[in-house]
Every structure is written in structure tokens, then in C-alpha cells.
Amino acid sequence: VVKGRSFPFMSMLTIVMDESSFLCGASLLSKDYLITAAHCVTNNGIPVSARSVTVGVGSNDAQDLRSYKVNRIHVHPDYDYENVVNDLALIRLRRPLDFDSGPEKIGTVAIAKEDLRDNEVFTAIGWGKTSSTGDISSSLREVNVTTGPSDACKAANPEFDGEDGRQICTAKNKNHDTCQGDSGGPLLLPVGPKDYQLAGITSYGYAPSDPNIICGTDSVVAYYTHVKYYIKWISE
Q: How far apart are CA 173 and CA 156, in angstroms?
């Protein structure tokens, strides 16, 4: 469980679709823009209505988040929902956040721009399930994960083009993993004591030996959208 406000940019998305709702994560890039996974805010590749998405910020406790409405959703034009590539989207709020209001600190996260190394250690955070069969967490949680062996990453996904391509892959993490509900949340590169930059966006994971297992075992291979690869699109 996360202690203190180490991740003031972390946000929760509540998406209402077909009379049901589900959760995703997102990260604040500015006072009015967040970044998340495209699959969180689309239905069969088509963006959902901005009215169906609510953004929650300002607390590690899911019950204490402050809610904001969405003005527009920008899905990456090359998002491929069948192969889950280019899995990112930008969300624009109806009104900019006031970082100085409210009891808890709110802030933004910078994008990591350096090349990634083998065995890079990241921090992933979210309110997602604590296991494949577990419940959504009411408290923000963090976990450290390491980039996976390239052979395992390519075996599970032939489209994988290496750690400095469109995706970051983690594997063989001894049950340390992201899970359902963590999608869209950040994969963070530590750059100093309690200082992080945004390297990836939680996209998907599964065990090649059993595709029904989506998280929480040593056999799961997980993929994250590599944000650096998309800086030009984000800035436009």
C-alpha cells in the first residue's frame, strides 16, 4: 500500500459502458490533460462518450477521490484494439485542475526520455485487483517490476520490437505484477528519492501457458505502452 503522496499525478478513471462500470488508471500530464490506455476509453476500437468517463484525483484512497468531468477523449489514430498496439489515449478535462486546492497534493508527471536498459526496474501503481481472482483495491498500491527476458517477451508477442520500441515488457517477476483495474495507469522509472518519470502505460498481460491467467504468477508476461515513442503525437 502506498504511504504518503509520492504519486500526486495518479488518477482513477470510472468508465460507464452498457449499464456497467469499470476502473482504469491515468496520469496527469498537465492541469487539464491526462494520459491512459486506449482500451480503457474505447469499445471495439471506438472512443466512448466523454460523458461516460469520470476522473478522480487527490487521494490514495479510492473513496476520497475528487471527481472531475471530461471534455474530450483523443485516442491514438493507430490504435489497434485487436492486436493491442499503440494503446494510449489523452483525456482533456472540462476545466483545469487547481493544484493548490483540496487537502491532498496534486501534481503532474514528466515523461521519461532516456533509452531503457536491460533489467530496468520500474514501479507500477494502481487500484486494480490484488490477484487474478482477487478484488479491486480501495487503497493505491505499488509494485516493482523488471523488464523481462527478450525471448520470453517475443515468444508471447511476436510483434514485440524490443524495450526501446512501442512497448515495454516485464516478465519473470515472481508474482509481482499489475492486474485488471490497473490498465491505463503508469509504469514509472525512478529517477531519485520519491521522484519518478512516466515510462509506460499499463496495457495487458497473460500467461502463454494459460491465456486465462492474466496476472499474478511468474508465468505472466506483461506489456506497457512505451510513452517516449509517442512524444510527438502527445505534444501535438
A: 15
